[in-house]
Amino acid sequence: MSDKNVTKKNLVIFQGDTFNRTLKFTNSSGNAIDISNWIIYFTVKLGYQMETNNDSNAIIKKTYPVGNGTSGTLVISLTKEETSAIKPHNYKYDIKIKRPGNIINTILYGDFLVVESVTKEY
To answer: Which helix (H) or strand (E) holds 81?
Structure first.
């Protein structure tokens, strides 16, 4: 994924599952972009909550500071405990990057569907 393009991608998770998605930042030639010193923000909200001016009502709000990012990859993750606490629903999410110089871009957004798990004991 380029550091300047916005992509819509709907995500589906099951309540109680571990969730991992790898973000790979590349230039137009397909080479890794150094994301060292970037900050990645992952936020999930109910659709009607997006009208507020802050993230205090977010269902999920995670911040991933990148130290050494020469490989251009970062894993966005949620534990099984975190996904167990989310009620099944179709939420909205986005992923933003903050680069040195206070440059902020949205890179991914879409629906974030949480499906109730049939299996409860594991």
So the answer is: helix 80-84
User: Tokens in use for 81?
Assistant: 């405990």
The CATH architecture assigned to 7-115 reads Sandwich (2.60)
Measured between alpha carbons, how far is 52 from 106 in angstroms, rounded to an integer?
18
Tell me the average pLDDT across 19-46. 94
- Confidence label for 110 from pLDDT (cuts 50, 70 and 90): very high
State whether residue 80 is helix, strand or coil: helix
25, 2 in Cβ contact below 8 A? yes
Residue 113 or residue 67, greater confidence? 113
Domain ranges of the chain: 7-115
> How far is it between the farthest Cα atoms of the chain?
48
Kindly report the pTM of this predicted structure. 0.88
